[in-house]
Design brief:
The chain is an alpha+beta fold. It is built from 25 helices and 30 strands. It has a 5-stranded mixed beta sheet with strand order 2-1-6-23-24. It has a 5-stranded mixed beta barrel with strand order 8-9-10-12-11. Strands 14-13-27-26-25 form a 5-stranded antiparallel beta sheet, with helices on both faces. α3 packs across α9, α9 crosses α10 and α18 crosses α23.
Length: about 900
């Protein structure tokens, strides 16, 4: 029995052994098959692995930054907001914050953190049950592999490739280089790529200035930037909680001490908005000019992704002053031309606040805001504000947050005369109801200080405003080197990007006269030479008009053989003034004339007839040569009208030309880019190409300072340049530029006004600053009685007042060999110091006036400066009655027959 049992037990044992043997073999086969499958899968997944060599040559698109002359950042050009910085420039505590937050064992693992991966997987079981966001187990190295080489697909193949490539990266690159790649590539939200850009975009400061609380907050963002934006109240608590978690990790890992961490946890997170200050708005036209120049030089890719550092010539203080002066000046001019009506009107007042908030508000209106006229009577109008206007203009107290209404009284609309055609206006309003109607949508600005129209009034007072229809430009530059210090191309860049300082080609009018007079001074005239100011008539040789078969005047055209023919389609109709047989220029002041006058007086008073007579005498050929030499016109015509500014040019060209007058006759070109550096800091462009060969000496042994050669082209004689400068000083002291006298410092300049007041100009300068102002309509339109004196010179004066504040008052530099001789400013005759109407006039050697054998002359040395006091003689303007009598006596001696050209008077000259 026992044997049978033993036999049965042996059989069972052998059966179990066979079973386990087969099971083991089967499991082994399964494991082997799985291992082979995994091997094949991994092999397949890692086939065609990307090369990690590209990481060592990583060159991401980096934004280009634009700086003012004082180093202040004023703009950026980018496809991605990234500033690439080497790891050595990233503060160690900032590096440690990301290690603590993202990859605690970064410095010890080989690309894949098994412990961290297992911890994340176990934690995710709990997160799944609690419907919470899952944790990632990726190391910093894996994130570099994913971001640079693998991609963001969510599958097992991508994860395997990521782990394998992370290992290869660890073998090839140092930990510092891996961290450098990571910190320069990750996205932080707010358009910022990389930690350097994030530091600027969130806190407006470089990384080295970040506090511990700010460092910890930046380390939070890469997980999910949109979820931790503290500007969103619903997300701020989450951001603070995550920030404090990072601070705890930093404390545990020894990257921060307990006291600093405790203080940081108690503090708030405050982020800033970049490019919202006045200096950014003020610089928009200037920045656009810089952008176009850099694009032309290096192309779009380098501009938007090359990481260029662009240092401009802009002076932020002057730029702010320029924008403020131009905007205020244009608003004042526009108000003089009357009120053009409301922006719109609501007939239905239901839900008016919401509808008003959706109304299309004009861009860039500062502290103005939209308002709806709710009630109106003779004395005042009650206005309401939209829902979005929780903080009313100038009234940011709690009272006005709760009161969405205001009042416009009669004083607030006193300027609003009815706008009529050709710049004229109606009568001043005597009632508010004459200006405003119920339901009008208007722009208003709060009054400072606010007053009450009666004791029951609880609403604040406002003024009616409107966006100017008139526009203009202002440019300021250093006349010695052409550096553009301020540039404003219009009332608002947001409303119109057209640059009226550089792009608008308009007739300069009398602003061109200084260059006509310069040609005269180089062709035998002196500032004391007399020219007849009397009616001038000359037959036009360019009139090609005939009467067509319909009875209309039409211009003839030249055919291929040079013959003048009439078009058959009668579509070349001429304006009446194009067919005038005689050219008859008149003076600006209603055609009045003043007889013989000196060149100085003619320029000071901007007399047209004198200028044309002068141009006729010396000829338009030399004048046009001067105009081209100064870069004012590309093409010219030999027509006398061009001596009065009939051609078209730009404000920028005029300011550049005036620079050559005050700098002693040297040619300059406008410079807006000071220097450009590439992403490595190497300077690749200098705006000033002057070379100082001896400036890099290693030691100084008492030798004279190095002399930088002046390579500027001399385009006009220095004496001629000074004579014009001195005459233009007279324009300010005694002539059409009289409003500039309020600056109470040496100033010179010239007004310009075109026919029918289409355009108004003022070009002026101190010894070291040139500025030009243009005012006009974008679509040419008459501006009433506006002139360079009334429209442009106040803008110039306001700008110069701010730009020169605190600057010393230097006189104009006088070049070598200038002769200063006392003459009568009205007649040009020799005089003596102390006599009535005497002035020390500037003469070229040998041209000064003499009395018998005597002469009274002061000879100047090289670039000497004479005290302004010797020029400060009061000019007593003769009465209009005496002036008229003098003119009548002069004209009595001249036979004038405007109907017939008298060939005796020099080819038809009257």
């Amino acid at each position: 029995m026992n044997n049978k049992e033993d036999i049965s037990e042996n059989i069972e044992n052998r059966t179990f052994k066979k079973f386990f043997k087969y099971l083991a073999v089967g499991l082994g086969c399964v494991v082997l098959i799985m291992a082979i499958s995994v091997f094949v899968f991994v092999k397949s997944a890692t086939r065609d692995m990307p090369s990690i060599e590209s990481l060592a040559k990583y060159k991401p698109p980096v934004m280009s930054r634009v700086h003012a002359g004082d180093g202040k950042l004023i703009s950026e050009f980018r496809t991605e907001a990234r500033v690439f910085v080497p790891i050595s420039s990233i503060p160690k505590q900032l590096q440690n914050a990301f290690v603590a937050a993202e990859d605690k064992r970064f410095y010890s693992h080989n690309g894949f953190d098994e412990k961290g991966f297992l911890r994340a997987m176990l934690a995710n079981f709990s997160h799944v049950l609690n419907n919470e966001r899952l944790e990632g187990g990726s190391t910093i190295t894996q994130q570099v592999a994913k971001n640079f080489l693998v991609g963001n697909e969510r599958n097992i193949t991508r994860k395997i490739r990521e782990v394998v490539i992370a290992g290869l990266i660890e073998e090839a690159l140092s930990k510092d280089l891996i961290l450098e790649l990571y910190l320069n590539d990750i996205y932080f939200g707010r358009g910022a790529y990389g930690v350097a850009a994030a530091s600027l975009n969130y806190f407006g400061k470089p990384m080295k200035d970040l506090s511990l609380k700010e460092i910890a907050y930046l380390a939070v963002l890469p997980k999910a930037p949109n979820n931790y934006q503290v500007t969103n109240p619903t997300k701020k608590a989450r951001a603070l909680s995550r920030r404090n978690y990072v601070l705890t990790r930093m404390l545990e890992d020894g990257y921060a001490d307990e006291l600093n961490v405790s203080d940081a946890k108690e503090s708030d997170i405050v982020v800033v908005d970049r490019f919202v200050g006045d200096e950014y708005l003020a610089s928009e036209y200037f920045v656009e000019e810089a952008r176009k120049k850099i694009k032309d030089m290096y192309g779009n890719d380098e501009l938007y992704g090359g990481g260029l550092s662009i240092r401009t010539t802009l002076d932020t203080r002057m730029q702010l002053a320029a924008r403020s002066a131009l905007r205020k000046g244009l608003e004042d001019i526009d108000m003089r031309h009357g009120y053009r009506g409301p922006l719109g009107n609501f007939n239905d007042f239901s839900d008016w606040r919401k509808k008003l908030s959706k109304f299309d508000e004009p861009a860039d209106i500062g502290d103005w805001q939209l308002a709806l006229v709710m009630e109106v009577n003779n004395k005042f109008a009650k206005i309401g504000f939209a829902e979005k206007s929780s903080l009313l203009a100038h009234n940011k107290d709690e009272e006005n947050k709760l009161n969405p209404f205001g009042i416009i009284d009669l004083d607030g609309v006193s300027w609003a005369k009815r706008a009529l055609k050709k710049g004229s206006v109606g009568k001043a309003p005597k009632k508010v109801s004459e200006v405003l109607n119920l339901g009008d949508i208007v722009l208003v600005q709060g009054k400072l200080p606010s007053r009450k129209i009666n004791t029951k009034q609880t609403e604040k007072l406002y003024n009616l405003k409107q966006v100017p229809k008139v526009n203009g430009g202002l440019i300021a530059m250093d006349p010695n080197n052409g550096r553009v210090l301020a540039l404003v191309g219009g009332y608002s860049f947001e409303q119109s990007q057209f640059n009226r300082a550089t792009q608008a080609r308009r007739q300069p009018g009398s602003a061109l006269k200084p260059f006509v007079y310069a040609a005269a001074l180089d062709n035998g005239y002196t500032p004391a030479s007399q020219v007849l100011d009397a009616p001038f008539v000359i037959e036009r040789k360019d009139t090609n008009c005939v009467e067509n078969r319909l009875g209309s005047l039409e211009l003839l055209e030249e055919d291929g053989d040079g013959k003048k023919t009439l078009r058959k389609d009668n579509k070349n109709l001429a304006k009446e003034d194009q067919c005038e047989r005689f050219y008859k220029p008149s003076n600006y002041n209603a055609g009045r004339f003043y007889g013989l006058s000196t060149l100085r007086l003619g320029l000071e008073k901007s007399r047209n007839a004198m200028t044309v007579r002068l141009a006729n005498d010396i000829g338009m050929v030399p004048i046009n040569k001067y105009i081209k030499r100064f870069g004012l016109y590309e093409e010219t015509k030999p027509e006398l009208a061009w001596s009065l500014g009939a051609g078209e040019t730009t404000l920028s060209k005029l300011a550049t030309a005036y620079s050559s007058l005050v700098n002693g006759g040297k040619k300059v070109e406008p410079v807006i880019i000071d220097r450009v550096q590439d992403r490595t800091g190497k300077t690749i462009y200098y705006g000033n190409n002057r070379v100082c060969a001896k400036c890099k000496k290693d030691n100084y042994q008492g030798q004279l300072p190095p002399n930088i050669a002046d390579d500027r082209e001399q385009i006009i004689d220095p004496i001629t340049a000074y004579q014009i400068t001195y005459m233009l000083k007279g324009v300010v002291d005694n002539g059409t530029g009289y409003k500039v006298r309020s600056l109470r410092r040496p100033m010179a300049g010239k007004t310009g006004t075109t026919n029918d007041s289409y355009d108004a100009w003022f070009l002026g300068f101190s010894p070291n600053l040139v500025a030009g102002v243009y005012v006009g309509m974008d679509i040419p339109e008459q501006m009433g009685s506006e002139s360079g004196s009334s429209a442009a010179s106040p803008i110039f004066t306001n700008f110069m007042s701010e730009a020169l504040e605190g600057k010393p008052k230097f006189p104009f530099r006088i070049p070598k060999n200038v002769k200063l001789s006392p003459v009568n400013r009205k007649t040009g005759e020799p005089s003596y110091i102390g006599a009535e109407d005497v002035i020390l006039e500037a003469f070229r050697p040998g041209t000064e006036p003499k009395v018998g054998a005597l002469k009274s002359v002061i000879q100047m040395g090289a670039d000497e400066q004479v005290s302004e006091s010797i020029f400060d003689f009061d000019f007593v303007e003769e009465s209009s009655q005496n002036r008229e009598k003098a003119s009548e006596k002069m004209l009595d001696k001249i036979e004038i027959n405007p109907e017939k050209v008298d060939e005796v008077l020099d080819d038809g000259l009257y």
